[in-house]
């Protein structure tokens, strides 16, 4: 295992480390020389818009896509030389469920376990344990096609644990799920982390990143734009609060000129004006004192989404 020294002087063990890591596809450079490390036992996130390089990075960590340049160590090994040995110790949850729909819940777990060379008796016991973990025991004999989306996602995560991985890679783990299913999955992932499993997560949900990740990097254009704990990133790139003001149609641009100086930063959007400030209620009182009468106002705490949009922009990237 690779030992590192943090910028704050602390030490720990790195399960994954990239240094000047690059991935090219022909002339296109998807990952452009990034540095990162993932500590043992933490939940680490990769955030970024489409095309930022998240999936390319995850595929290199998963040892299914060779790096083009730079250094990468996963579980203390070189993926280019020891890919099979690394993969045997990984769990991978792909963005799209790839379960066998004609097999039962139990069969999906047991067949997958046999791919790792595990004994039939061992995978039978493990399948029972994992179905309980995923709250699917009562669906053990049901074919996968009959399951809901949330159940399939829980089964995919359970299947990734059949080999007792040291490192679990999750690509957009809750995309398309309803709020109840998302929160149940968050609970399952928190339990895994409490057992010592290291998690690497990509997600488009900022609340998910705040809930699950101890640290994360924001990627944009193949580079790392920022790194830190969610609370640290909010403190560094945003303000404590955000005041949202909405005005009647046709009056917003005039109002925008009247809020100057009320906040550290002002952002004018088509449907509202955002004032980034450490004191939202005070800013609202000052706006009223200037004669501004918004149709509605909202003071909320600043979030990771505010950081994300400031670093990567609001323009849709395809």
TrEMBL record:
SUPFAM superfamilies: P-loop containing nucleoside triphosphate hydrolases (SSF52540). Residues 16-246 form the ABC transporter domain. The keyword Transmembrane does not apply. Its main location: membrane. GO terms for molecular function: ATP binding; ATP hydrolysis activity. GO terms for cellular component: plasma membrane. Belongs to the ABC transporter superfamily. This is Lipooligosaccharide transport system ATP-binding protein. It comes from Amycolatopsis cihanbeyliensis.
């Amino acid at each position: 295992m690779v030992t590192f020294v943090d910028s704050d002087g602390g030490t720990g063990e790195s399960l994954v480390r990239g240094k000047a890591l690059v991935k090219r596809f022909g002339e296109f450079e998807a990952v452009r020389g990034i540095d990162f490390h993932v500590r043992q036992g933490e939940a680490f996130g990769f955030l970024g818009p489409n095309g930022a390089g998240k999936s390319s990075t995850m595929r290199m960590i998963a040892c299914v896509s060779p790096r083009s340049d730079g250094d990468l160590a996963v579980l203390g090994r070189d993926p280019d030389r020891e890919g099979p040995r690394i993969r045997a110790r990984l769990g991978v949850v792909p963005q799209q469920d790839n379960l066998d729909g004609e097999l039962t819940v139990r069969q999906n777990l047991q067949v997958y376990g046999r791919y790792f060379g595990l004994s039939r008796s061992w995978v039978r016991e493990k399948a029972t344990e994992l179905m309980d973990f995923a709250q699917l025991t009562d669906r053990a004999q049901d074919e996968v096609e009959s399951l809901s989306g949330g159940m399939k996602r829980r089964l995919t995560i359970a299947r990734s644990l059949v080999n007792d991985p040291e490192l679990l890679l999750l690509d957009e783990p809750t995309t398309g799920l309803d709020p109840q299913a998302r929160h149940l999955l968050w609970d399952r992932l928190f339990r895994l982390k409490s057992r010592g499993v290291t998690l690497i997560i990509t997600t488009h949900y900022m609340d998910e990143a705040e809930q699950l990740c101890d640290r994360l990097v924001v990627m944009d254009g193949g580079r790392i734009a920022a790194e830190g704990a969610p609370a640290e990133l909010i403190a560094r790139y945003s303000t404590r609060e955000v005041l949202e003001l909405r005005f009647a149609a046709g009056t917003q641009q005039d109002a925008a000129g009247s809020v100057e100086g009320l906040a550290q930063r002002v952002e004018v959007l088509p449907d509202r004006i955002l004032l980034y400030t450490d004191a939202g209620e005070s800013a609202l009182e000052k706006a009223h004192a200037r004669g501004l009468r918004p149709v509605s106002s909202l003071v909320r705490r600043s979030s990771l989404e505010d950081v994300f949009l400031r670093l990567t922009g609001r323009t849709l990237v395809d």
